Amino acid sequence: MSLLTQAQVARFHDDGFLIVENLLSDTIVQQLVARIDPLFAGEFETGVFPDEWYWNPHLGLPNASAQMSNVWKSDRALASVVLSAKIGQMSAELGGWSGSRLMSDSLWMKPYGASETTLHQDSMYNFYHTPQDIVVCWIALSQAIPGGSTIEYVRGSHRWTLSDAVTEFHAVNQGYRAAMEQAAQQVGITQPAVSLLEMSAGSCVFHHGHMWHGSNKNLMPDTVRRSLVVAHVPANARFKPTGAYVQGGYLPGRYKRYGDDTMDEGFFPIVWQQDGYRTPFLADYCQDALPASLVATR
Amino acid sequence: MTHHPIQLTEAQSSQFQTEGFLVLERFLTQALVDRLVDRLDPLFATQLETGVYPDEWHGRPGLSQPNATRQMSGLWRCDRTVASLSFAAEIARLNATLAGWTGGRFAMDSCWLKPPDAPAVSFHRNNTYASCIAPSTMITCWIALSDAIASAGTLEVVPGSHRWDCTDQPRFLHAPKDDYRQPLWQAAAEAGVAQPSLVAIELPPGGCVFLHGDLWHGSGRNTTTDKTRRSFAVSTFPAGACFQPPGVGYGYIFSRYRRMGTQEMDESFFPILWTPDGYRSPLANAYCDDALLAQRPEAIAQA
Predict the structure, then answer these.
(1) Contact A181, A249 (CB under 8 A)
(2) Environment class of residue B135 by beta-carbon count within 10 Å: exposed (0-12), middle (13-18) or buried (19+)?
(3) Are A146 and A98 a contacting pair, CB within 8 Å?
(4) Does residue B155 contact residue B201 with C-beta atoms inside 8 Å?
(5) Rounded distance between C-alpha atoms, residue A193 and residue A158, angstroms
Protein backbone atom coordinates (compact mmCIF):
# COMPACT_ATOMS: atom_id res chain seq x y z
CA MET A 1 0.00 0.00 0.00
CA SER A 2 1.38 3.40 -0.96
CA LEU A 3 1.52 6.15 1.64
CA LEU A 4 1.58 8.94 -0.91
CA THR A 5 -0.68 9.63 -3.88
CA GLN A 6 0.59 10.08 -7.41
CA ALA A 7 -0.33 13.76 -7.16
CA GLN A 8 1.82 14.16 -4.04
CA VAL A 9 4.76 12.47 -5.72
CA ALA A 10 4.30 14.64 -8.81
CA ARG A 11 4.30 17.80 -6.69
CA PHE A 12 7.56 16.68 -5.07
CA HIS A 13 9.16 16.31 -8.48
CA ASP A 14 7.83 19.66 -9.66
CA ASP A 15 8.77 21.71 -6.60
CA GLY A 16 11.63 19.66 -5.18
CA PHE A 17 9.89 19.37 -1.80
CA LEU A 18 6.66 18.12 -0.21
CA ILE A 19 5.24 19.05 3.19
CA VAL A 20 3.67 16.26 5.26
CA GLU A 21 1.48 17.49 8.11
CA ASN A 22 1.50 15.94 11.58
CA LEU A 23 3.96 13.15 10.94
CA LEU A 24 4.68 12.96 14.68
CA SER A 25 2.12 13.23 17.47
CA ASP A 26 2.56 15.87 20.16
CA THR A 27 3.49 13.10 22.57
CA ILE A 28 6.33 11.88 20.37
CA VAL A 29 7.54 15.43 19.77
CA GLN A 30 7.66 16.01 23.52
CA GLN A 31 9.52 12.75 24.07
CA LEU A 32 12.15 13.71 21.52
CA VAL A 33 12.52 17.30 22.71
CA ALA A 34 13.09 16.05 26.27
CA ARG A 35 16.16 14.18 25.02
CA ILE A 36 17.85 17.12 23.28
CA ASP A 37 19.41 19.04 26.20
CA PRO A 38 20.84 15.88 27.82
CA LEU A 39 22.28 14.79 24.47
CA PHE A 40 24.13 18.05 23.86
CA ALA A 41 25.41 17.85 27.44
CA GLY A 42 26.97 14.48 26.59
CA GLU A 43 24.45 12.15 28.24
CA PHE A 44 24.17 9.40 25.67
CA GLU A 45 21.59 6.78 26.57
CA THR A 46 23.40 3.98 24.72
CA GLY A 47 26.90 5.14 25.71
CA VAL A 48 27.78 5.55 22.02
CA PHE A 49 28.75 9.00 20.76
CA PRO A 50 26.90 10.43 17.76
CA ASP A 51 28.94 10.77 14.58
CA GLU A 52 29.09 14.56 14.97
CA TRP A 53 28.58 16.66 18.09
CA TYR A 54 29.01 20.37 17.61
CA TRP A 55 28.29 22.48 20.67
CA ASN A 56 28.13 21.54 24.31
CA PRO A 57 27.21 23.68 27.33
CA HIS A 58 30.79 23.60 28.68
CA LEU A 59 32.71 25.04 25.73
CA GLY A 60 29.96 26.41 23.47
CA LEU A 61 28.89 30.00 22.89
CA PRO A 62 25.47 30.60 24.48
CA ASN A 63 23.63 31.43 21.27
CA ALA A 64 25.43 29.22 18.77
CA SER A 65 23.74 26.64 16.57
CA ALA A 66 24.05 23.16 18.01
CA GLN A 67 24.14 20.12 15.74
CA MET A 68 24.59 16.38 16.03
CA SER A 69 24.64 13.68 13.37
CA ASN A 70 23.64 10.05 13.60
CA VAL A 71 22.11 10.51 16.99
CA TRP A 72 20.23 7.24 16.36
CA LYS A 73 23.35 5.49 17.64
CA SER A 74 23.23 7.39 20.92
CA ASP A 75 19.58 7.49 21.90
CA ARG A 76 16.83 5.00 21.20
CA ALA A 77 13.97 7.51 21.55
CA LEU A 78 15.43 9.47 18.64
CA ALA A 79 16.21 6.20 16.87
CA SER A 80 12.58 5.10 17.04
CA VAL A 81 11.73 7.94 14.64
CA VAL A 82 14.93 8.08 12.61
CA LEU A 83 14.75 4.36 11.81
CA SER A 84 11.00 4.25 11.21
CA ALA A 85 9.79 2.28 8.22
CA LYS A 86 7.16 4.90 7.44
CA ILE A 87 9.62 7.73 6.74
CA GLY A 88 11.73 5.28 4.73
CA GLN A 89 8.73 4.22 2.68
CA MET A 90 7.78 7.79 1.88
CA SER A 91 11.38 8.55 0.82
CA ALA A 92 11.31 5.49 -1.42
CA GLU A 93 8.01 6.50 -3.02
CA LEU A 94 9.33 10.00 -3.66
CA GLY A 95 12.65 8.72 -4.96
CA GLY A 96 11.09 5.96 -7.05
CA TRP A 97 13.04 3.26 -5.22
CA SER A 98 12.11 -0.26 -4.13
CA GLY A 99 13.52 0.40 -0.67
CA SER A 100 15.27 2.93 1.57
CA ARG A 101 18.53 2.77 3.44
CA LEU A 102 19.37 5.26 6.18
CA MET A 103 22.34 7.39 5.19
CA SER A 104 22.39 9.71 8.22
CA ASP A 105 20.39 11.80 10.61
CA SER A 106 21.03 15.26 11.98
CA LEU A 107 19.64 17.00 15.05
CA TRP A 108 19.59 20.79 15.20
CA MET A 109 19.00 23.27 18.00
CA LYS A 110 19.09 26.96 17.12
CA PRO A 111 18.42 29.32 20.04
CA TYR A 112 17.62 33.01 19.69
CA GLY A 113 20.57 34.68 17.97
CA ALA A 114 21.89 31.47 16.40
CA SER A 115 23.64 32.14 13.13
CA GLU A 116 22.42 31.35 9.65
CA THR A 117 22.82 27.95 8.06
CA THR A 118 24.26 28.59 4.61
CA LEU A 119 22.02 27.48 1.77
CA HIS A 120 23.38 24.29 0.27
CA GLN A 121 22.42 21.12 -1.61
CA ASP A 122 22.66 17.91 0.40
CA SER A 123 23.93 16.09 -2.70
CA MET A 124 27.09 18.23 -2.45
CA TYR A 125 28.12 16.08 0.49
CA ASN A 126 26.65 12.77 -0.65
CA PHE A 127 28.16 11.82 -3.99
CA TYR A 128 30.16 8.72 -3.15
CA HIS A 129 27.39 6.17 -3.47
CA THR A 130 25.58 4.66 -6.43
CA PRO A 131 22.76 5.07 -7.36
CA GLN A 132 23.57 8.59 -6.22
CA ASP A 133 20.02 9.56 -5.22
CA ILE A 134 19.16 10.96 -1.81
CA VAL A 135 15.83 12.06 -0.30
CA VAL A 136 15.80 14.04 2.92
CA CYS A 137 13.06 14.43 5.52
CA TRP A 138 13.25 17.60 7.69
CA ILE A 139 11.05 17.24 10.78
CA ALA A 140 10.06 20.29 12.82
CA LEU A 141 10.41 19.61 16.56
CA SER A 142 9.30 23.16 17.35
CA GLN A 143 6.97 25.44 15.44
CA ALA A 144 8.74 26.36 12.20
CA ILE A 145 8.08 30.00 11.35
CA PRO A 146 9.69 32.78 9.31
CA GLY A 147 11.92 34.83 11.61
CA GLY A 148 12.48 31.78 13.77
CA SER A 149 15.09 30.21 11.51
CA THR A 150 12.66 27.99 9.65
CA ILE A 151 13.88 25.96 6.70
CA GLU A 152 13.82 27.80 3.40
CA TYR A 153 13.80 26.46 -0.15
CA VAL A 154 14.27 27.73 -3.65
CA ARG A 155 11.37 26.07 -5.43
CA GLY A 156 12.52 24.08 -8.47
CA SER A 157 16.24 24.47 -7.67
CA HIS A 158 16.63 20.68 -7.55
CA ARG A 159 16.79 20.88 -11.34
CA TRP A 160 19.81 23.19 -11.29
CA THR A 161 23.31 21.86 -11.82
CA LEU A 162 24.87 20.41 -8.68
CA SER A 163 27.36 22.95 -7.29
CA ASP A 164 30.66 22.46 -5.49
CA ALA A 165 30.42 21.91 -1.77
CA VAL A 166 29.84 24.85 0.55
CA THR A 167 32.74 24.30 2.94
CA GLU A 168 31.43 25.89 6.12
CA PHE A 169 27.78 26.26 6.88
CA HIS A 170 27.83 27.00 10.59
CA ALA A 171 29.74 30.30 10.61
CA VAL A 172 29.43 32.29 7.44
CA ASN A 173 31.76 34.96 6.10
CA GLN A 174 29.37 36.07 3.38
CA GLY A 175 25.61 36.20 2.95
CA TYR A 176 24.04 32.87 3.80
CA ARG A 177 22.29 32.81 0.43
CA ALA A 178 25.34 33.85 -1.59
CA ALA A 179 26.35 30.39 -2.83
CA MET A 180 22.76 29.70 -3.90
CA GLU A 181 22.51 33.03 -5.71
CA GLN A 182 25.71 32.26 -7.56
CA ALA A 183 24.32 28.89 -8.61
CA ALA A 184 21.09 30.57 -9.74
CA GLN A 185 23.03 32.96 -11.96
CA GLN A 186 24.73 30.02 -13.61
CA VAL A 187 21.35 28.74 -14.79
CA GLY A 188 20.20 32.22 -15.84
CA ILE A 189 18.03 33.09 -12.81
CA THR A 190 18.84 36.55 -11.49
CA GLN A 191 16.33 36.73 -8.64
CA PRO A 192 15.64 33.29 -7.19
CA ALA A 193 12.47 33.16 -5.09
CA VAL A 194 13.01 31.79 -1.60
CA SER A 195 10.12 30.07 0.21
CA LEU A 196 10.16 30.22 4.02
CA LEU A 197 8.11 27.33 5.37
CA GLU A 198 5.57 27.47 8.19
CA MET A 199 4.88 24.18 9.91
CA SER A 200 3.65 22.96 13.27
CA ALA A 201 5.93 20.91 15.51
CA GLY A 202 5.69 17.30 14.34
CA SER A 203 5.13 18.15 10.68
CA CYS A 204 7.86 17.53 8.16
CA VAL A 205 9.02 18.31 4.67
CA PHE A 206 10.73 15.95 2.25
CA HIS A 207 13.22 17.41 -0.18
CA HIS A 208 15.21 16.25 -3.17
CA GLY A 209 18.97 15.89 -2.62
CA HIS A 210 19.74 18.66 -5.13
CA MET A 211 17.32 21.09 -3.48
CA TRP A 212 18.88 24.38 -2.32
CA HIS A 213 17.93 24.93 1.32
CA GLY A 214 19.15 26.46 4.56
CA SER A 215 17.91 28.81 7.25
CA ASN A 216 18.28 32.38 8.48
CA LYS A 217 19.27 33.47 11.96
CA ASN A 218 16.82 32.81 14.73
CA LEU A 219 15.55 36.35 15.28
CA MET A 220 12.79 35.48 17.77
CA PRO A 221 13.64 36.04 21.45
CA ASP A 222 12.90 33.24 23.88
CA THR A 223 12.55 30.59 21.17
CA VAL A 224 14.67 27.60 20.25
CA ARG A 225 14.29 26.14 16.77
CA ARG A 226 14.62 22.38 16.90
CA SER A 227 14.62 19.97 13.99
CA LEU A 228 15.50 16.39 13.16
CA VAL A 229 16.68 15.51 9.67
CA VAL A 230 16.65 12.01 8.18
CA ALA A 231 18.47 11.25 4.91
CA HIS A 232 17.77 8.12 2.85
CA VAL A 233 19.44 6.59 -0.17
CA PRO A 234 18.16 3.68 -2.27
CA ALA A 235 18.27 0.33 -0.47
CA ASN A 236 20.52 -1.08 -3.19
CA ALA A 237 23.08 1.75 -2.86
CA ARG A 238 26.78 0.87 -2.71
CA PHE A 239 29.91 2.94 -2.36
CA LYS A 240 31.50 3.88 -5.65
CA PRO A 241 34.82 2.06 -6.04
CA THR A 242 37.66 4.01 -4.42
CA GLY A 243 41.24 3.59 -3.31
CA ALA A 244 42.20 3.59 0.35
CA TYR A 245 39.63 6.21 1.34
CA VAL A 246 36.48 7.97 0.14
CA GLN A 247 37.48 11.45 -1.06
CA GLY A 248 34.93 13.91 0.32
CA GLY A 249 33.44 11.08 2.34
CA TYR A 250 32.19 13.35 5.17
CA LEU A 251 30.65 10.93 7.69
CA PRO A 252 29.61 7.94 5.54
CA GLY A 253 33.13 7.60 4.17
CA ARG A 254 34.34 6.56 7.61
CA TYR A 255 32.32 3.38 7.31
CA LYS A 256 33.61 2.05 4.02
CA ARG A 257 35.65 -1.08 4.51
CA TYR A 258 38.93 -1.27 2.63
CA GLY A 259 38.47 -3.18 -0.63
CA ASP A 260 34.70 -3.55 -0.19
CA ASP A 261 32.06 -1.31 -1.78
CA THR A 262 29.19 -2.60 0.36
CA MET A 263 27.26 -0.11 2.47
CA ASP A 264 27.23 -2.32 5.54
CA GLU A 265 23.74 -2.65 7.03
CA GLY A 266 25.17 -2.28 10.52
CA PHE A 267 26.04 1.31 9.64
CA PHE A 268 23.49 2.04 6.90
CA PRO A 269 20.42 -0.04 7.80
CA ILE A 270 17.63 -0.78 5.33
CA VAL A 271 14.56 0.68 7.07
CA TRP A 272 11.91 -0.21 4.49
CA GLN A 273 11.71 -2.37 1.42
CA GLN A 274 8.77 -3.32 -0.83
CA ASP A 275 9.24 -7.02 -0.10
CA GLY A 276 8.99 -6.39 3.67
CA TYR A 277 12.68 -6.76 4.46
CA ARG A 278 14.17 -4.64 7.22
CA THR A 279 17.73 -4.91 8.53
CA PRO A 280 17.40 -7.51 11.29
CA PHE A 281 19.10 -5.70 14.19
CA LEU A 282 16.54 -2.87 14.06
CA ALA A 283 13.85 -5.06 15.63
CA ASP A 284 16.04 -5.63 18.68
CA TYR A 285 17.41 -2.11 18.88
CA CYS A 286 14.33 0.06 19.30
CA GLN A 287 10.61 0.35 18.67
CA ASP A 288 9.25 1.91 15.50
CA ALA A 289 7.50 5.05 16.74
CA LEU A 290 5.34 5.62 13.67
CA PRO A 291 2.30 3.64 12.53
CA ALA A 292 2.06 3.05 8.78
CA SER A 293 -0.86 5.11 7.50
CA LEU A 294 -1.73 7.59 4.80
CA VAL A 295 -0.53 11.13 5.34
CA ALA A 296 -1.93 14.60 4.72
CA THR A 297 0.19 16.96 2.67
CA ARG A 298 0.03 20.49 1.37
CA MET B 1 65.49 5.25 4.69
CA THR B 2 66.41 2.56 7.14
CA HIS B 3 64.23 2.16 10.19
CA HIS B 4 66.13 2.34 13.48
CA PRO B 5 63.74 1.28 16.22
CA ILE B 6 64.11 2.74 19.68
CA GLN B 7 65.44 0.14 22.11
CA LEU B 8 63.83 0.54 25.49
CA THR B 9 66.11 -0.42 28.37
CA GLU B 10 65.05 -2.79 31.13
CA ALA B 11 65.10 0.16 33.51
CA GLN B 12 62.68 2.05 31.29
CA SER B 13 60.33 -0.91 30.99
CA SER B 14 60.52 -1.45 34.72
CA GLN B 15 59.79 2.20 35.40
CA PHE B 16 56.71 1.99 33.18
CA GLN B 17 55.49 -1.05 35.10
CA THR B 18 56.05 0.63 38.45
CA GLU B 19 55.05 4.20 37.74
CA GLY B 20 52.51 3.71 34.95
CA PHE B 21 54.27 6.15 32.64
CA LEU B 22 57.57 6.63 30.83
CA VAL B 23 59.02 9.86 29.46
CA LEU B 24 61.19 10.12 26.33
CA GLU B 25 62.54 13.66 26.13
CA ARG B 26 63.31 13.19 22.45
CA PHE B 27 61.01 11.24 20.20
CA LEU B 28 60.03 13.24 17.09
CA THR B 29 62.34 15.52 15.13
CA GLN B 30 61.53 19.22 15.06
CA ALA B 31 60.93 18.87 11.32
CA LEU B 32 58.24 16.27 11.92
CA VAL B 33 56.71 18.33 14.73
CA ASP B 34 56.57 21.32 12.37
CA ARG B 35 55.00 19.22 9.64
CA LEU B 36 52.25 18.09 12.00
CA VAL B 37 51.61 21.50 13.51
CA ASP B 38 51.23 22.97 10.02
CA ARG B 39 48.31 20.61 9.44
CA LEU B 40 46.38 21.52 12.58
CA ASP B 41 45.07 25.02 11.81
CA PRO B 42 43.61 23.93 8.45
CA LEU B 43 42.00 20.91 10.09
CA PHE B 44 40.31 22.97 12.78
CA ALA B 45 39.20 25.40 10.04
CA THR B 46 37.34 22.51 8.31
CA GLN B 47 39.91 22.19 5.54
CA LEU B 48 40.13 18.42 5.64
CA GLU B 49 42.56 16.91 3.15
CA THR B 50 40.51 13.77 2.56
CA GLY B 51 37.10 15.34 3.07
CA VAL B 52 36.32 12.72 5.70
CA TYR B 53 35.34 14.13 9.11
CA PRO B 54 36.97 13.23 12.44
CA ASP B 55 35.43 10.96 15.06
CA GLU B 56 35.14 13.67 17.69
CA TRP B 57 35.48 17.44 17.47
CA HIS B 58 35.13 19.91 20.32
CA GLY B 59 35.76 23.64 20.40
CA ARG B 60 34.77 24.20 16.79
CA PRO B 61 35.44 27.82 15.73
CA GLY B 62 32.36 30.01 15.52
CA LEU B 63 30.38 27.81 17.89
CA SER B 64 32.70 27.84 20.89
CA GLN B 65 34.10 30.25 23.44
CA PRO B 66 37.35 31.87 22.26
CA ASN B 67 39.40 30.18 24.98
CA ALA B 68 37.82 26.74 24.44
CA THR B 69 40.13 23.79 24.13
CA ARG B 70 40.07 22.54 20.57
CA GLN B 71 40.09 18.76 20.44
CA MET B 72 39.73 16.23 17.67
CA SER B 73 39.86 12.45 17.72
CA GLY B 74 40.16 10.27 14.65
CA LEU B 75 42.22 12.84 12.76
CA TRP B 76 43.83 10.11 10.69
CA ARG B 77 40.67 9.97 8.63
CA CYS B 78 40.96 13.65 7.70
CA ASP B 79 44.60 14.08 6.82
CA ARG B 80 47.21 11.62 5.61
CA THR B 81 50.16 13.62 6.96
CA VAL B 82 48.67 13.24 10.42
CA ALA B 83 47.82 9.61 9.65
CA SER B 84 51.46 8.91 8.87
CA LEU B 85 52.13 9.36 12.58
CA SER B 86 48.87 7.81 13.82
CA PHE B 87 49.66 4.66 11.85
CA ALA B 88 53.41 4.61 12.57
CA ALA B 89 54.48 1.05 13.31
CA GLU B 90 57.07 2.35 15.77
CA ILE B 91 54.47 3.92 18.06
CA ALA B 92 52.34 0.78 18.00
CA ARG B 93 55.44 -1.30 18.70
CA LEU B 94 56.51 0.83 21.66
CA ASN B 95 52.99 0.97 23.11
CA ALA B 96 52.51 -2.78 22.68
CA THR B 97 55.98 -3.67 23.96
CA LEU B 98 55.54 -1.65 27.13
CA ALA B 99 52.26 -3.47 27.71
CA GLY B 100 53.80 -6.86 26.97
CA TRP B 101 51.60 -7.54 23.93
CA THR B 102 52.71 -9.40 20.83
CA GLY B 103 51.09 -6.94 18.45
CA GLY B 104 49.48 -3.52 18.37
CA ARG B 105 46.19 -2.44 16.82
CA PHE B 106 45.26 1.20 16.29
CA ALA B 107 42.77 2.39 18.91
CA MET B 108 42.53 6.16 18.39
CA ASP B 109 44.44 9.37 17.84
CA SER B 110 43.65 12.66 19.50
CA CYS B 111 44.84 16.25 19.24
CA TRP B 112 44.43 18.80 22.01
CA LEU B 113 45.06 22.51 21.48
CA LYS B 114 44.78 24.55 24.66
CA PRO B 115 44.96 28.28 23.91
CA PRO B 116 45.73 30.83 26.64
CA ASP B 117 43.12 30.60 29.40
CA ALA B 118 41.87 27.25 28.12
CA PRO B 119 39.97 25.45 30.87
CA ALA B 120 41.10 22.39 32.82
CA VAL B 121 40.53 18.78 31.78
CA SER B 122 39.08 16.40 34.38
CA PHE B 123 41.24 13.64 35.77
CA HIS B 124 40.38 10.26 34.29
CA ARG B 125 41.68 6.87 33.24
CA ASN B 126 41.84 6.22 29.49
CA ASN B 127 40.70 2.63 29.96
CA THR B 128 37.36 3.90 31.27
CA TYR B 129 36.55 4.80 27.67
CA ALA B 130 37.56 1.36 26.35
CA SER B 131 35.16 -0.72 28.43
CA CYS B 132 33.35 -1.96 25.31
CA ILE B 133 36.60 -3.60 24.17
CA ALA B 134 37.99 -6.95 25.37
CA PRO B 135 40.47 -6.61 26.94
CA SER B 136 39.49 -3.11 28.07
CA THR B 137 42.94 -1.69 27.90
CA MET B 138 45.00 0.65 25.78
CA ILE B 139 48.42 2.25 25.98
CA THR B 140 48.87 5.85 24.85
CA CYS B 141 51.85 7.70 23.44
CA TRP B 142 51.28 11.39 24.29
CA ILE B 143 53.47 13.69 22.24
CA ALA B 144 54.18 17.36 22.97
CA LEU B 145 53.94 19.52 19.85
CA SER B 146 54.80 22.70 21.76
CA ASP B 147 56.66 23.33 25.01
CA ALA B 148 54.61 21.35 27.50
CA ILE B 149 54.96 23.34 30.70
CA ALA B 150 52.96 23.40 33.91
CA SER B 151 51.75 26.99 33.48
CA ALA B 152 50.32 26.16 30.04
CA GLY B 153 48.27 23.28 31.41
CA THR B 154 50.51 20.33 30.59
CA LEU B 155 49.58 16.77 31.44
CA GLU B 156 49.53 15.87 35.14
CA VAL B 157 49.88 12.25 36.21
CA VAL B 158 49.84 10.37 39.50
CA PRO B 159 52.72 7.85 39.58
CA GLY B 160 51.59 4.35 40.49
CA SER B 161 47.89 5.18 40.27
CA HIS B 162 47.48 2.58 37.49
CA ARG B 163 47.65 -0.02 40.25
CA TRP B 164 44.98 1.55 42.42
CA ASP B 165 41.94 -0.55 43.20
CA CYS B 166 39.27 2.02 42.40
CA THR B 167 36.57 2.89 39.91
CA ASP B 168 36.11 5.60 37.30
CA GLN B 169 33.12 6.52 35.18
CA PRO B 170 32.83 8.16 31.76
CA ARG B 171 32.35 11.90 32.00
CA PHE B 172 32.65 14.94 29.77
CA LEU B 173 36.26 15.91 30.33
CA HIS B 174 36.35 19.52 29.18
CA ALA B 175 35.91 22.53 31.49
CA PRO B 176 34.44 20.81 34.56
CA LYS B 177 32.45 23.09 36.86
CA ASP B 178 34.05 21.50 39.92
CA ASP B 179 37.72 20.94 40.73
CA TYR B 180 39.20 19.06 37.77
CA ARG B 181 41.03 16.83 40.24
CA GLN B 182 37.85 15.86 42.08
CA PRO B 183 37.59 12.45 40.33
CA LEU B 184 41.19 11.82 41.39
CA TRP B 185 40.54 12.66 45.06
CA GLN B 186 37.54 10.34 44.99
CA ALA B 187 39.56 7.51 43.44
CA ALA B 188 42.43 8.00 45.89
CA ALA B 189 40.04 7.80 48.80
CA GLU B 190 38.53 4.64 47.36
CA ALA B 191 42.01 3.15 46.95
CA GLY B 192 43.06 4.19 50.46
CA VAL B 193 45.72 6.61 49.25
CA ALA B 194 45.82 9.55 51.63
CA GLN B 195 47.92 12.01 49.67
CA PRO B 196 48.41 11.19 46.01
CA SER B 197 51.46 12.85 44.48
CA LEU B 198 50.97 14.76 41.25
CA VAL B 199 53.65 15.13 38.60
CA ALA B 200 53.43 17.73 35.83
CA ILE B 201 54.95 16.25 32.68
CA GLU B 202 57.18 18.95 31.20
CA LEU B 203 58.53 18.22 27.74
CA PRO B 204 60.08 20.03 24.79
CA PRO B 205 58.31 19.81 21.43
CA GLY B 206 58.80 16.31 20.08
CA GLY B 207 59.13 14.72 23.51
CA CYS B 208 56.62 12.09 24.57
CA VAL B 209 55.24 10.21 27.51
CA PHE B 210 53.80 6.69 27.37
CA LEU B 211 50.73 6.26 29.57
CA HIS B 212 49.31 3.07 31.03
CA GLY B 213 45.55 2.97 30.38
CA ASP B 214 44.75 2.87 34.09
CA LEU B 215 47.00 5.80 35.04
CA TRP B 216 45.09 8.74 36.49
CA HIS B 217 45.84 11.92 34.57
CA GLY B 218 44.33 15.28 33.67
CA SER B 219 45.46 18.84 33.06
CA GLY B 220 44.94 22.28 34.55
CA ARG B 221 43.97 25.60 33.04
CA ASN B 222 46.41 27.24 30.65
CA THR B 223 47.36 30.21 32.80
CA THR B 224 49.65 31.83 30.24
CA THR B 225 48.61 34.76 28.10
CA ASP B 226 50.57 33.84 24.99
CA LYS B 227 51.21 30.10 24.81
CA THR B 228 49.02 27.50 23.13
CA ARG B 229 49.64 24.00 24.43
CA ARG B 230 49.58 21.50 21.57
CA SER B 231 49.67 17.76 21.96
CA PHE B 232 48.96 14.71 19.87
CA ALA B 233 48.31 11.24 21.25
CA VAL B 234 48.13 7.79 19.68
CA SER B 235 46.55 4.91 21.59
CA THR B 236 46.99 1.21 20.89
CA PHE B 237 44.94 -1.89 21.65
CA PRO B 238 46.41 -5.39 21.70
CA ALA B 239 46.38 -6.82 18.16
CA GLY B 240 43.90 -9.49 19.24
CA ALA B 241 41.40 -7.10 20.82
CA CYS B 242 37.72 -7.57 20.02
CA PHE B 243 34.43 -6.02 21.08
CA GLN B 244 32.67 -7.08 24.24
CA PRO B 245 29.25 -8.67 23.66
CA PRO B 246 26.61 -6.12 22.61
CA GLY B 247 25.45 -3.98 25.50
CA VAL B 248 28.58 -4.49 27.57
CA GLY B 249 30.69 -1.43 28.36
CA TYR B 250 30.70 2.19 27.29
CA GLY B 251 30.68 2.52 23.51
CA TYR B 252 32.30 5.98 23.23
CA ILE B 253 33.59 6.43 19.65
CA PHE B 254 34.50 2.75 19.33
CA SER B 255 31.16 0.91 19.22
CA ARG B 256 30.07 2.88 16.17
CA TYR B 257 32.34 0.60 14.20
CA ARG B 258 30.90 -2.65 15.50
CA ARG B 259 29.60 -4.79 12.64
CA MET B 260 26.44 -6.86 12.93
CA GLY B 261 26.74 -10.40 14.20
CA THR B 262 30.43 -10.33 15.11
CA GLN B 263 32.64 -9.14 17.95
CA GLU B 264 35.61 -8.82 15.64
CA MET B 265 37.23 -5.37 15.35
CA ASP B 266 37.40 -4.79 11.62
CA GLU B 267 40.88 -3.95 10.35
CA SER B 268 39.44 -1.21 8.13
CA PHE B 269 38.50 0.73 11.25
CA PHE B 270 41.09 -0.53 13.75
CA PRO B 271 44.11 -1.56 11.65
CA ILE B 272 46.85 -3.74 13.04
CA LEU B 273 49.95 -1.55 12.88
CA TRP B 274 52.71 -3.71 14.29
CA THR B 275 53.36 -7.41 14.82
CA PRO B 276 56.72 -9.12 15.33
CA ASP B 277 56.35 -10.95 12.00
CA GLY B 278 55.86 -7.67 10.12
CA TYR B 279 52.15 -8.01 9.38
CA ARG B 280 50.25 -4.73 9.07
CA SER B 281 46.66 -4.33 7.94
CA PRO B 282 46.44 -3.63 4.20
CA LEU B 283 44.63 -0.33 4.83
CA ALA B 284 47.52 1.06 6.89
CA ASN B 285 50.01 0.45 4.10
CA ALA B 286 47.73 1.69 1.34
CA TYR B 287 46.48 4.82 3.05
CA CYS B 288 49.63 6.77 3.96
CA ASP B 289 53.38 6.71 4.52
CA ASP B 290 54.87 5.79 7.87
CA ALA B 291 56.34 9.03 9.28
CA LEU B 292 58.78 7.24 11.55
CA LEU B 293 60.28 4.98 8.93
CA ALA B 294 61.94 8.08 7.56
CA GLN B 295 63.23 9.27 10.92
CA ARG B 296 66.83 8.42 11.77
CA PRO B 297 68.03 8.32 15.38
CA GLU B 298 70.76 10.87 14.65
CA ALA B 299 68.03 13.28 13.54
CA ILE B 300 66.22 12.71 16.83
CA ALA B 301 69.45 13.29 18.75
CA GLN B 302 69.74 16.70 17.12
CA ALA B 303 66.14 17.56 17.90
Answers:
(1) no
(2) middle
(3) no
(4) yes
(5) 13
Yes or no: say if B187 and B166 are a contact pair by the CB < 8 Å rule: yes
Nearest CA in chain B to A284: B246
- SS3 state of residue B187: helix
Average pLDDT, chain A: 94
Around Cβ A193, how many Cβ atoms within 10 Å? 11
CB under 8 Å to A7, separation ≥6 — which residues? none
**Cα atoms in the Cβ-side hemisphere of radius 13 Å centred on A298:** 9
Cβ of residue B17 closer than 8 Å to a chain A Cβ:
no
Indicate the residue of A54, A115, A265 with minimum beta-carbon distance to B57. Answer: A54
Which of B:180-219 have CB within 8 Å of A?
none
Tens digit of each residue's pLDDT (9 = 90 or more) over B59-114: 998 889 999 999 999 999 999 999 999 999 999 999 999 999 999 999 999 999 99
CA angle A8, A9, A12 (to 5 degrees): 90
**pLDDT for B178-234, tens place per residue?**
999 999 999 999 999 999 999 999 999 999 999 999 999 999 999 999 999 999 999
Q: How many CB pairs under 8 A join A and B?
A: 132
Residue B272 and residue B264: Cα distance in Å, rounded? 13
